[in-house]
Amino acid sequence: MTTPDPANFESLLSLAKVKPSAAISFLRQRSAITTDRYGELEAEAHAKAFTSAGMTETRMLNQVHEALLRAQGEGTGFDVFQKRFLKIAQEHAWQPRNPFGVKDAVSKRAFLIYQTNISTAFSAGKWARLNTPEAIEMYPWFRYRHHACAHPRLLHESWDGIILPRDDPFWDTHWAPNGWHCHCTVEAVSRRDMRKNNWTVSESPKVEWVEVRNPATGKMVKTPKGIDLGFAYNPGKVWQAEEQRRAEKAVKPLVSVGGIPKATVPAPVLQEAQKQQIEELLEVKSGTAEAGRLAEPAQELLQEFDKETHEIAVQRGLAEQRAPEWDGSVHLTAETLNKERLHHSELGKDEFLALPQILAEPKALVSVNETAAGVGVGVIGLVGKQYYYAVVRLQEGAEAAKLMTYHVLNEKDRLRLLRRGALWEKPVEEAGSEPHG
Fold first, then answer.
1. What is the per-residue pLDDT across 279-304, written as a single tens digit (0 to 9) for each?
2. Of 60, 81, 91, 139, which shows the fewest CB atoms inside 10 Å?
3. How far is Cα 342 from Cα 3, in angstroms, rounded to an integer?
4. Domain Phage head morphogenesis spans what residues (predicted)?
């Protein structure tokens, strides 16, 4: 089978009229799940998971996931993604299954991963865009579109032009893409479109379910005729439902512990409550947890930086005088947690649960550049024999600081950070004997 032209695929995406941010949001919320073969996951699970058949190493899967996000975030498209993918595959000595001896199998897998994930992400983003209250009122119908390609699926061609109400069950299973290398799309139809084109609402096609053998599990499963295994679902609808579920269970920052205002709770008890919040955030992946409370030296530095920045803003007429109200709390959002887990595969549950201790008992504080996210400080912490690095920022008028960056720190980088801008170090007599690696 001929590999579709990436340039043609990119041009089709431009017709989707979906903001890249929506597609990126869909891609980012998917968790990496290693599978030996694609069909190991049920269809709807693919809307919640990022996976690729034969990638059984979590670190590699996370790297590919990050490469996809960067391709969309930077707007570089397939060519740059392919270069990064080939480098990742080489690093892990990875080859896809290739029983038929296909030439350039790794490059072809790169395009398949890119096309399937990006088209599904844009499809989900389109569903979200077309299901706002305003869009629901403006566009009562959806229209299936089949786009010309070298090897068209006859059933997909037969669906071209079908116009159905937005709540027709057909869209639950036939919201494009509907298979590997599928170029079909769905467009919204307004009342004006119907009048202008003299269109009429179609009769809802009878969905014929067929039994096929799942090559990954060997089990017989049902799928609509004409829909490739694993594609009989509406990615945007599943994503929307998942986002709603997460919103309902979203973690909210601590106000009290056991009914006692957190300001009066002993530090060890508060840290345990903070760990519980982080653990809940890892599970729910929605909301904001209290990651810890900064040690006094770090609080004083941030407040001083914040005061200087605020005074300059007041002098320039950009802000009014105000008294800072901050108790040293540091918040961790689900977005930051997901980003750091994606970029730093070494971060697991235990590493995140170490945050309250790292923030409360830093070994050193280093300077970081001021950004629109606020004044900041770099925190170097030690747990066991491992160093960690966290960047905390305090924004103008905020009631809590935010954790922006967090990762494992090696000895070389630790020394580099200290040389570049050490602001405070725990005295040696207090720190005791420390490891150097």
1. 999 998 899 999 999 999 999 888 88
2. 91
3. 29
4. 62-186
